[in-house]
Every structure is written in structure tokens, then in C-alpha cells.
Write a structure and sequence with these properties.
Distance between the termini of chain B: 13 Å
Shape of chain A: elongated
Number of helices of chain A: 18
Number of strands of chain B: 5
Largest sheet of chain B: 5 strands, parallel
Oligomer: heterodimer
Distance between the termini of chain A: 116 Å
Shape of chain B: globular
Helix content of chain B: 40-55%
Radius of gyration of chain A: 45 Å
Radius of gyration of chain B: 13 Å
Chain lengths: ~575, ~120
């Protein structure tokens, strides 16, 4: 403008000395002035247009970019911004969560072509500045050190860095002021043009977009990681195309390959148990159609091997802006094991009730028998009644003990600290077998105990070994009606192998694999809850040992072997002394 | 003439109890702890029984118990009455109750209870 006026003055001078009359001269000068102003306006317009085009091109370039990270996006934005506006320093700042500070996430320094980050400023020191940013989108301070909106920075920041003009624009995200894009000009003061102010507005929008996109990306990433981490079969169902995405879980849980599963929801329908398919599919569609959000159901789902898993499936419906359901995300949890446990618990209560009722009934009848014996002065009846009561009191005690044991062992309840952790074999087995003498005599069985000489002590709490051994022996006595029971203890590597052999009923081949299952009873009609072997197994395993069972088949006897770790050498010496 | 009773019971302690409860009465007792042996005796008509006292365990092997029971009924041709003694309660016994000529006693049984049930069945 100044230049133009000066030019005009020169021109006037030139014409002032001419031979034209004053009025004409004035007319001409007006004309010239008009032409000049017009020319000047045209030039300004041209320059502005060029500038706008340059700014628009820069924005378009930014919009076309495809960033992988938030950091990359911000670097690109500050760089483009600084180069387009020729501003020395362009930076992006964000409030901390508690809004006490603003932190610089990226600062681009034009003449060094380098990025910096990490500077922190305390928000409370600049109240006027933030107030101004809340009130208007852009704060353009041509004279930043004097402008009341930015002068709070003068001493600490502007002067040391030689910043003369500032143009800052607020970043809004989800309706909140979250940060600022700063333009700091160094050198002679700069007048910020309206189109430049518009431009930085668009830059701030770009930052918001990048924020949104990175948030969406990290949410997707979180979802992907969660889907990877879980054991559940996670599904993402596109309700518009009927396509379904499954995580790895669906393959590991049910044993299918990716090709078998395919991209369609129909695969899911087709693998629901035929008896439940209608209910489940109808249920989920009813929920979607009735604008429901949460769905869950329990059903059986076919595995690749043809068996069925019990699953608990739940999902959440996602709607578009018109509240139309477009997507559903959910997860299938395999609860087969839990179902099995529930069934086992039911069986336990049923069996336990029955098992406990039987000895109780026997005691009652034994008492009646004794009573009649007393009335009739019949010693035989008194004796028989007493014997029946005795046997059944033992049996009740044993059953209740076993039930409590299995609960405790399964729940991992620690036993009270054992006084002896090692057991000398000789004395132990003799004493344990003494308890069975009456039963063995009554059944007229032969009982033999063989212990290899020099066997080191066994490393297991005494009561645990006693319970394990008794549970094995109980079975031997219970299932052997004639013949013998042999207990043979020997050293096998670092273990004591305790063999309990009988000539009893034996176990069918197909039942051998099941004898350690809780409540499994190979032969019906035999007393007991079916917990003996499972308890023995848990107890020796707790000590670091194991259990094995062999049988030649029905009628061919059974051999159960407990492998119990032997004590170490140092302990061996001690154990010998003790023995 | 003494009535013939077959006791099928796999718990030897119960044998003593039945002998005590029924021995001094006008009954002849045949006691076995093997259900299949009992079936054999009936099928081969080794002896004629007036009443069967059945005390087989019918818990998780309810099916086995039932199979045996059906076979027993066939062998008896529905004629000989059966008293089932068990710790099962009413609903566990289920549809067995609807069969003719069969009654149930719940353990523990009392001597008087058993005798009156037998008399009701036989006379």
C-alpha cells in the first residue's frame, strides 16, 4: 500500500508540471488514481488467490495422506503447516488428563527442518490465553509480546526465543478443548492474513481427525489383542452383509480350520445342536428386531470331531446413526467342563445321600436286633447286632472322611503341618495292615506283606500315605472274596513302588481308564462312594508320586501300584536311625 | 405247611437281619447274594417260592436293577409276589410301583413292618 501511494505521488508530480488546466488535471489525476487503485486491488486479489490456492493445495495434500500412527500424522501436519505459511515454529500441544499442564507433542522448526517434543507448560500461568482460546477459535496476535491474550508468555517464552507474532488455534475433540496448534513467528512482526487464519482452522480440524482416527485404531487394536488373549470364540457379525469374523478361539475351541468356518453366519447356525438351533437363532433375531442390545444364551455347539461342547454365548448389538442394528459383537465361552462339574456335584449329592443312608439303615436295624436279643436273652442276636452296628459305624466314618477329603483336596485346602514328612516303610505297612485283620479273617483271605530290605524312608506326610494306602487296600478287601491280597514294597529308581495285588473281581478293560474318575464304580452294588482311587491318586500326586492300575480283566484280580518318592540321602540316614 | 421265601440280598449283614426277623416264624428262608443265581433257581423251577424278598442295590445301576427285575418278573410269570426292600425313596422307585403284585419297603425296616407286609401279601 505504501509503495502504491508513493508511486501515485510521483505520478502526480509528473503530471503537476504539465500544461493542462487545473480542472482537467484533477480529472486526469482522479482517473489515474482510480486505475491505480483498481490495479492494486487486482494485484492483491491475484496474490490472495495464489495464496489461497497454495493453502488449499497444502490442505488437500494433508487430507490425502494415510498415517499409520498419531505421531506420524502430527509430524506431517506441523511440517506442511510451517512450510506453507513460512512460519519458523509450528507445534501441537495437548492438555494433560487433569488439565494442569499442556504438553508439546510435536514442534517443527522450519530452518532446522527438525522435530522436537516434550516441552511442558503450566496451564494456570496463562489464564488470559486459555480464556481467549475458549472464546474464539483462533488467536492471531501480530504483536505477541504486547497483545494481552499472549503477553503472559513474553518473559518465559517469547523473548528468550525471539518470537514476535503468534497465531494459535484451538483443537476440539468430542466437544472439548483438548489442545492447541501454535504458530510462532521469529523476526519482524507479522500480520496474519484472514485466509491464513482460515487455513490454521483447517489444520486444527486435521489434528482432530488424526486424533479420532488414532483413537479408533487403538480401539481396534485393543479389540484385536483382547480377541487374541481370550480363550473364548470372539465373533463380529455384520448384520447387513451377514458376514462373520471369528478370532483364533473358534478354531482352538472347536477344532475347525479357517476354510471350514467360512465368512458366513450360516456356518454358526448349522453347528448349533439340532434340538436347540431353532430356539437360539430365533432368540437372537428376536432381540435384534426388537431393538434389544444384549443377548445371551446357553446351547450345545458341534465340534469338528462331531461331539458337542456346552457354550455360553453373549453378544452386543451395535446400531448406526439411524439406530438401525448393523453389527453385533460377542463371545462364546466353552462351559463343557463347568457343566460336567455341575453334573458331578449332583451325582455326588445323590450318591452321597444314598451311600450314607445305607449304613445308617443298617445301624438302625442292628440296634433293633440287639434290642430283641436283650429281650429274648439271646446272646447271639446281641452279638450279631453289635457287629452290624460296628461295621456300619466304621463305614459311615470312612465314607464321610472320603467325601470331606475329596472336597478339601480339590479345593486345595492345605492340611495342618505334618509332624513327620518321611515314613519308614517297615513299621508303617505292618501297622496299616493290622486294621484290616478282622475283615480279612472274616473273608478267609490270605494276606502277605513283602518289603525289600534297606528301603529308604518314603517322602510323604504319614497321614497322607495312610489315607492313600487304606483307600487302595479297602478296594482290594472289598472286591476279593477268595484268595489272597499281597502288599509288595520295593525300590524303583527314586520311588518306592507299593504294589497291592489281589485275586479278586478284577476290572474290565474298558473300565480301566475310568477308575480314577470321581464317583466311578466299576461294579454296581458295591459299598462305597467311588472316591477311593481318586483320593489315593490326588494324595500321592501331591507328594510328587503317581498311581497305576492293572487288571487282567473280570475275575482276574487287580494290581494297584502307588509310586511314592523316596527321601534324599541325608534324610535316608536319619530315617534309618528312626526306623 | 411253611411258606417258602426267597431272599435276594447282596449284603451278608442283611442275611443275619432277615434270619432274625423271619426265622422263628412259619417261613422257610432261602437266602442268596447273587441275583443271577436267584433267577436261575426260579427259571429252572428248582424250588417253588411263595414270595420273593428283593434287596438288590439299585442306585446308579438303576438300569441293571430294572433289567434284572424285568427278567425276574418274566420268570415268575407275574404270579409270585415280590417285596422290594431298599433305601430308595418313593420318587426314586418311580414307575416300578405300578407293576402288579409288587410292594416296597423302605430301609431301615422294622420287624413288625416286614412281617405285616409279608402277611398282607401272602394271606
Amino acid at each position: 500500500m505504501n509503495i502504491c501511494l508513493k508511486k501515485g505521488d510521483d505520478t502526480m508530480k509528473e503530471f503537476g508540471e504539465s500544461r493542462y488546466p487545473v480542472t482537467e488535471r484533477r480529472l486526469v489525476s482522479d482517473l489515474i488514481r482510480y486505475t491505480l487503485v483498481q490495479k492494486e486491488a487486482e494485484e492483491t486479489l491475484k496474490a490472495r488467490t495464489e495464496r489461497i490456492i497454495r493453502l488449499q493445495t497444502a490442505l488437500l495434500g494433508l487430507a490425502k495422506e494415510n498415517y499409520t500412527t498419531r505421531e506420524e500424522a502430527f509430524r506431517k501436519i506441523t511440517e506442511t503447516d510451517a512450510k506453507t505459511l513460512s512460519v519458523k515454529r509450528v507445534s501441537i500441544w495437548f492438555f494433560t488428563e487433569d488439565r494442569s499442564e499442556i504438553v508439546c507433542e510435536d514442534l517443527y522448526i522450519l530452518d532446522r527442518n527438525s522435530h522436537e517434543k516434550g516441552i511442558r507448560l503450566q496451564a494456570e500461568k496463562y489464564p488470559n490465553y486459555f480464556k481467549a482460546l475458549e472464546e474464539s477459535r483462533t488467536v492471531a496476535a501480530d504483536d505477541a509480546q504486547q497483545d494481552p491474550r499472549t503477553s503472559e508468555f513474553t518473559l518465559d517464552y517469547l523473548k528468550p526465543l525471539g518470537i514476535t507474532s503468534m497465531m494459535d488455534v484451538s483443537i476440539w475433540h468430542q466437544g472439548k478443548l483438548v489442545g492447541i496448534v501454535c504458530h510462532e513467528h521469529v523476526g519482524p512482526k507479522r500480520q496474519w492474513q484472514p485466509e491464513e487464519q482460515d487455513f490454521v482452522g483447517s489444520i486444527s480440524d486435521m489434528v482432530s481427525l488424526a486424533l479420532e482416527s488414532s483413537e479408533r485404531q487403538s480401539a481396534e487394536e485393543r479389540f484385536r489383542l483382547m480377541a487374541q488373549a481370550t480363550n473364548d470364540a470372539v465373533w463380529d457379525w455384520n448384520l447387513v452383509t451377514n458376514g462373520v469374523w471369528w478370532n483364533e478361539g473358534v478354531r482352538s475351541l472347536f477344532g475347525y480350520t479357517e476354510e471350514e468356518i467360512g465368512p458366513e453366519a450360516t456356518w454358526w447356525y448349522e453347528h448349533i445342536h439340532p434340538e436347540e438351533k431353532e430356539r437360539v437363532v430365533e432368540g437372537i433375531h428376536r432381540l435384534i428386531e426388537s431393538d434389544g442390545r444384549f443377548w445371551s444364551d446357553e446351547y450345545r455347539f458341534a465340534r469338528a470331531d462331531g461331539s458337542y461342547a456346552h457354550v455360553y454365548d453373549r453378544g452386543y448389538v451395535i446400531c448406526d446413526e439411524e439406530r438401525k442394528p448393523v453389527r453385533m459383537i460377542g463371545a462364546m465361552m466353552d462351559i463343557t467342563e463347568r457343566k460336567l462339574l455341575e453334573k458331578m456335584k449332583d451325582d455326588l449329592f445323590r450318591d452321597a445321600a444314598h451311600e450314607l443312608r445305607t449304613p445308617y439303615a443298617m445301624i438302625q436295624m442292628g440296634l433293633d436286633l440287639m434290642e430283641r436279643g436283650f429281650r429274648q436273652n439271646n446272646r447271639r442276636k446281641i452279638f450279631t447286632g453289635k457287629k452290624i452296628i460296628g461295621i456300619n459305624v466304621d463305614r459311615l466314618e470312612h465314607d464321610v472322611e472320603n467325601l470331606l477329603d475329596i472336597f478339601k483336596l480339590e479345593a486345595g485346602v492345605q492340611q495342618t503341618k505334618e509332624e513327620t514328612l518321611t515314613v519308614a516303610a517297615n513299621g508303617f505297612f505292618k501297622e496299616a495292615l493290622r486294621l484290616y485283620q478282622p475283615q480279612i479273617q472274616e473273608k478267609k483271605l490270605k494276606l502277605e506283606l513283602k518289603i525289600r530290605r534297606g528301603l529308604p524312608p518314603l517322602r510323604i506326610p504319614r497321614t497322607d500315605l495312610l489315607r492313600a494306602f487304606r483307600n487302595v487296600l479297602d478296594n482290594a478287601v472289598k472286591f476279593t472274596d477268595r484268595g489272597s491280597i499281597t502288599v509288595f514294597v520295593r525300590k524303583q529308581e527314586n520311588f518306592a513302588a507299593i504294589h497291592v495285588q489281589d485275586t479278586g473281581r478284577g476290572i474290565r478293560k474298558e473300565d480301566l481308564g475310568r477308575v480314577f474318575e470321581k464317583f466311578f464304580k466299576a461294579s454296581a452294588g458295591v459299598q462305597g462312594v467311588g472316591l477311593g482311587l481318586p483320593i489315593a491318586k490326588l494324595l500321592v500326586e501331591k507328594a510328587g508320586g503317581r498311581i497305576a492300575v492293572h487288571s487282567g480283566g473280570l475275575g482276574r484280580g487287580t494290581e494297584v501300584t502307588l509310586f511314592v518318592p523316596l527321601a534324599e540321602r541325608k534324610l535316608v540316614a536319619k530315617g534309618r536311625e528312626a526306623a | 405247611m411253611k411258606k417258602e421265601i426267597l431272599v435276594v440280598e447282596d449284603d451278608p449283614q442283611m442275611h443275619d437281619i432277615y434270619r432274625d426277623m423271619l426265622g422263628e416264624q412259619q417261613f422257610n428262608l432261602t437266602v442268596t447274594d447273587e441275583p443271577l443265581r436267584a433267577l436261575q433257581m426260579i427259571q429252572r423251577k428248582e424250588k417253588r417260592f411263595d414270595l420273593i424278598l428283593l434287596d438288590i442295590l439299585m442306585k446308579e445301576s438303576l438300569l441293571d436293577g430294572r433289567v434284572f427285575f424285568v427278567q425276574l418278573r418274566e420268570a415268575l410269570q407275574d404270579k409270585t409276589p415280590v417285596i422290594v426292600v431298599s433305601v430308595l425313596n418313593e420318587d426314586q422307585v418311580g414307575d416300578l410301583k405300578q407293576i402288579n403284585n409288587i410292594s416296597f419297603l423302605h430301609k431301615p425296616i422294622k420287624r413288625q413292618e416286614l412281617l405285616s407286609e409279608i402277611r398282607k401279601t401272602l394271606f
